[in-house]
Each structure stands twice: as structure tokens, then as C-alpha cells.
Amino acid sequence: MKKHCRKRLADQKHSHRGSQQKAHVTKHAEEEEAAFYAFMACTQADQSKSSAWFVDSGASKHFTNWKDWFTEFTPSPSKDSVIFGGGEEYNIVGKGNVQISFGGKMLMFLNFHYVPGMELNLLSVSQIMRHSPHLDVNFSNHKCYIVDKNTKKIVALGVEDHGLFRLVDIG
Asked: Which residue has the higher pLDDT, 93 or 78?
């Protein structure tokens, strides 16, 4: 499957530019051909942002590397894994719900996957739309806004960071 990664193919085509970006790909062991994928580009310098949150429109699932953030957690009985563009593979060891504080407001996200060793934390736009019907995700002027549909207030703000949207405190 890695041979079809749009990020890897683009990097190969433009390798003379010296790009250091990688694509992160997720693979579900039970559905190899219809696997779920999370595509995420990040630079080598961003690898230390282990507590940072990124909104990823290409991710099909939410992922975090912090087990302490789960309010509910179920160990994963299957052999699901995440395969990074560089070939590194990490097991998805469980899933559950995660509560995150942004701007003084607590937000609950469902169906998070726990991946120890993963450098970044991903919020999937499609998962927010599917499991958080009270929230809207909008992109404009190099920013990402997560908006409460009822109050019309911005509950989280993402600023562009190497083609992704890193959430920042708006408190």
C-alpha cells in the first residue's frame, strides 16, 4: 500500500528539492485493502511536539500518544497498526474517548486510538464531523476553526504549521 502514498510519490518526484517531509499512513490489519489511512505531512523539526494537537483532514481516525488523556479506554484485541512514511510501524493498543481543554472549554472526542511512540496527536476532521455533531470544522485564511454549532463560538483554533493545522490556546 505504501507505494500508492500520494505524499511519498510527490516527494520522489521532487526529491531534488531536498524535502524532509514524511507521510504518516494508518493500516487496519483486518481490512488490508480497505484499510483506514491517516495522511499527515510533518518536518523532522516537528517530531518533538508530542503534546501538540493537529487537525488533519486526511486522517480517517483520531490518534494520540498519551494514555492519560483517555476518560474511557478499551484495550485493542486486534493487531491494528500505524505505518509511517519512513516505514516505522507502531501498534494501536487501545481506543476510547479523550477530553481536551481548549480556551477554557472541555471538548470530548469519541473513538480515539492510542498509539504509544507516535510523535504527534491527530484530530480527524471526518471523525469530528461523524461523532461530534455539535461541532463544525472550517478552514479559512491559513487557519482552522472548530466551532460550536449551538453558540457559534470558536472553541478551538488551528494555525497552519507546515501544511497542517496545529491547535493553539484561544483562552
From this structure: 93
DSSP string, the chain: -GGG-HHHHHHHHTGGG----EEEEEE-GGGSTT---B--EE-GGGGG-TT-EEEETTBSSEEES-GGGEEEEEE--S--EEEETTS-EEE--EEEEEEEEETTEEEEEEEEEE-TT-SSEEEEHHHHHHH-TTEEEEEETTEEEEEETTT--EEEEEEEETTEEEEE---
Residue 170 lies in a domain: no
Name residues whose C-beta falls within 8 Å of residue 160's C-beta, 6 or more positions apart in sequence: 142, 143, 166
Residue 52 falls within a domain, yes or no? yes
Q: Is residue 149 part of a domain?
A: no
Assigned C-alpha cell, 68: 492519560
Domain that holds residue 36: 2-100+107-131
Give the pLDDT band (50/70/90) at residue 112: very high
Greater confidence, 120 or 123?
A: 123
Question: Residue 143 falls within a domain, yes or no?
Answer: no
Q: How many domains does the chain have?
A: 1
* Beta-sheet pairing, 143-148 with 41-42: unpaired
Indicate whether 16 pLDDT > 50. Answer: no
